[in-house]
Design goal:
Elements (H helix, E strand, L loop, with lengths): L7 E5 L11 E3 L12 E6 L2 E7 L14 H10 L4 E10 L9 E2 L3 E5 L24 H13 L4 E2 L3 E5 L7 H9 L4 E3 L2 H10 L3 E11 L11 H25 L18
Parallel strand pairs: 1-4, 1-5, 5-11, 6-8, 7-9, 9-10
Antiparallel strand pairs: 2-3, 3-4, 5-10, 6-11
Length: 264
């Protein structure tokens, strides 16, 4: 099947399902099974955009059950060359506060059992993930967030846990002791799979809470995460509406040639 082509893809979470106005809903079939939901296809600022809710249209898919390979490959089928992945995240550091944005530049994978590569053999490919987030997209996200008056942290390491449970206090303190700023359940393997397909990827972490190991805070609850995200979701949309038209059409970043020299 031939799908309409889009320049930019967005994976959304809670509160972003209505991102596009009057979108076309298109059911997608991939070699890796069904993605989380039909693709929503439309425009933002004159740019063609493909949007998919990573947890499903009714938020019924928990983080550890998302078919990340199908989701990212669906973006590839739509011709997407840049993906923006906003997500609700926790903070591991006092200076990163609820309502702040972090434009992550590194991740640490603490998941298990997730299908995290398109190369299961016989073709063997080793793609560098030294700098997993697109620098071009990160710079634009930071600039546009500042112009909107959003408190934005220009770098940050996100530790990705398996979920669906939240961390123990000891786990949280351990993560913080490593100097990591953000904790999340969906950034891996979503980010890395995009790199395997030579798609640029940028994460926007909206901080909803301080994690359990932060001194003097109550343990995080899902209700609190949803409440804070809901209070700040318009800021995410405002940033996407500013960022998407500002993205260059041409790519000269490492993401565009990630497979060069990667095959064994």
């Amino acid at each position: 099947m031939t799908y309409p082509q889009a320049e930019i893809g967005v994976f959304g979470g809670s509160g972003l399902y209505s991102l596009l106005e009057n979108p076309r809903e298109i059911v997608v079939d991939t070699p890796y099974g069904a993605p989380s939901a039909p693709m929503m296809y439309g425009e933002i600022g004159g740019r063609t955009v493909a949007f998919m809710p990573r947890h499903g249209s009714e938020h019924t898919i928990p983080p550890h059950m998302i078919n990340y390979r199908a989701n990212v490959y669906a973006m590839k089928l739509f011709g997407v060359r840049r993906i923006i992945g906003p997500s609700a995240c926790g903070s591991l550091e006092w200076h990163v506060k609820p309502g702040d944005f972090v434009i992550c530049d590194q991740f640490v994978d603490r998941t298990k059992g997730r299908k995290d590569t398109y190369y299961d053999g016989p073709q063997t490919v080793h793609v560098s993930s030294a700098d997993p987030y697109c620098q071009t997209m990160r710079e634009i996200a930071i600039r546009e967030a500042r112009e909107l008056g959003i408190t934005v942290h220009e770098t940050g390491t996100v530790v990705v846990i398996q979920g669906p449970r939240f961390s123990t206090r000891s786990e949280s303190r351990w993560f913080a002791s490593q100097g990591w700023e953000v904790i999340n359940m969906t950034q891996y393997p979503e980010c890395y799979l995009a790199r395997e397909l030579e798609i640029c990827y940028c994460n926007i972490s909206l901080i909803t809470d301080h994690d359990a190991g932060t001194e003097g805070v109550e343990p995080v609850t899902n209700d609190e995460v949803i409440r804070v995200f809901g209070e700040n979701v318009q800021k995410v949309k405002d940033l996407l509406f500013k960022m998407i038209p500002a993205l260059p059409e041409e790519r000269d970043c490492v993401c565009a040639s990630a497979l060069s020299g990667a095959e064994f």
